[in-house]
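User: Assemble these into one structure.

Assistant: Restating your components, then the assembled model:
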Amino acid sequence: MASTDTTGTKAAAQDGQGGTAGRAGQAGLDVAGLEAGLDALETTGSARVPLRSTLVSKVLPPVTAVVLVLVVWEVLVLCHVAPAYKLPSPGDVWGEVTDAWMQGTLFGYIWTSVSRGLLGFLLALVIGTPLGLVVARVKPVRAAIGPILSGLQSLPSVAWVPPAVIWLGLNDQMMFAVILLGAVPSIANGLVSGVDQVPPLFLRAGRTLGATGLRGTWHILLPAALPGYLAGLKQGWAFSWRSLMAAEIIASSPDLGIGLGQLLENGRTNSSMSMVFLAIFLILIVGIAVDLLFFSPLERWVLRSRGLAARR
Amino acid sequence: MASPLAKAADETPAADHAARIDHVSKSFAGPAGRQLVLDDITLDVAPGEFVTLLGASGCGKSTLLGLVAGLDEPTAGSISTGGRPALMFQEHALFPWLTAGKNIELALRLRGVPRPERRGEAERLLELVRLGGAYGKRVHELSGGMRQRVALARALAQDSRLLLMDEPFAALDAITRDVLHDELTRIWRETDVSILFVTHNVREAVRLAERVVLLSSRPGRVAHEWRVDIPQPRRIEDHDVAALSVEITEQLRGEIRRHGQH
Ligand SMILES: Nc1ncnc2c1ncn2[C@@H]1O[C@H](COP(=O)(O)OP(=O)(O)OP(=O)(O)O)[C@@H](O)[C@H]1O
Ligand SMILES: [Mg+2]
């Protein structure tokens, strides 16, 4: 009771004169001030990290790592550890970049692959999301195709290239089919595990608020499952990109246009190791860029806004 | 202050009970067969009544509220309520992907409040629990007590005629709890809402209620009932409140002691 003394005396002093409203109001105001103080103590503001320290802590380390790799590479070339047709120098690869740039083909290669990859990924998203939702929520469906879906995840999507070529021929449809077979299971499985991890308390709270059926799915289930779903999307993109590259390397044909996979294959057939290196770097850079520019910020934002990730 | 809770009275004809719990039992499948948690509970909450439910930890209070809220089905017996009750969970149960204000607006939206009115109503409800500035705050940015108050505001946003509260103030400091006791009593008096309030704090039960119901443990049964005739507004440190609390505590001790014997 000691802790209530501050309000107790004030309210007691007023007891004689004030009506109920006056007493409650006065004590309330008094305590409102107290509470504001308590609340201010309990919540901490977060200061913005200055740009300089962001540069030092986030940009410097990866740049250093890349420079280090280039230096080691150059040293290996200068020491002649391998003949030039096996190990081109960084300068040769850079020459390949400037050549492609001058001819105006560099962005053509990248765009051919990226547009295919993104379109395939979006398609996988549109198919994988309802599929994951149905598998997560409908027991018989889950029993029927749940294990197959998680099994498919471990099947390398390269395996789908030969049958896809036979069924669909050497065309864009075949590429999309391979992307879908690689990415849809990831996305669906991500959503299933996201839904499985939703605390039952949220679903119960949603039901008491009247969010049942589709409204419950939209307002409670999907947002609650978002972190797992995003992880699935991220993996789905990685699988899309990998499947696409496999498809492009194996199934090259003049009327398909030159994407990064074909560039790699062309480099091999022309015995141009610097072209092969260029293709590998571009494939790597696109994969990293999509993750860095899109998925990572999205994931960080979702986790942070829910207080699930510490500010770093 | 006009409250949305007041409106409901004009629209629906008064029933003779806000909640009727009729010979309700509940058992769960446990490791040692079925475990009876609630045994033959019969309890009515009259329209506009404030009932507190007292009982030792684990006696089935939350289970009973879950049944009344329609989240679970009783093993035997029946429960009737006029419309969907609002339930304030023992944990705050706020949605972390929404801000405090949006949590409340979701309740309003699911209740059918048109969009243009939601924002103002949500801010009014936050004001009511003395969290005027918290509209845009994320759940994790609020202190435990603030979360509990937002949860109260969200429950009030449902505008139900029956409000179920599961130890809502257990985690609050005494000062905040006092304010919310006053606030809750005021809301209850100004509206025709009926409240079934679970607590294991005897003084809190007496401070708030018109009727205190004591549940025994394992299985939960209605062990005793008290009418509280002390006029409102009461304070938790009032002499009358203390006197009745002593009596009830004695009985509660007896219930717990009886358990040690077998
Ligand atoms: N879903 C469940 N499955 C099995 N047993 C359960 C379940 N829910 C509750 N119980 C059991 O029922 C009993 C009552 O639980 P309940 O949560 O209702 O207690 P309580 O009175 O609210 O306790 P407290 O005051 O600690 O919140 C406990 O023994 C608990 O183990
Ligand atoms: Mg409980």
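Residues B 28, 37, 55, 57-63, 90, 200 surround adenosine-5'-triphosphate (ligand 1) (CB under 6 Å).
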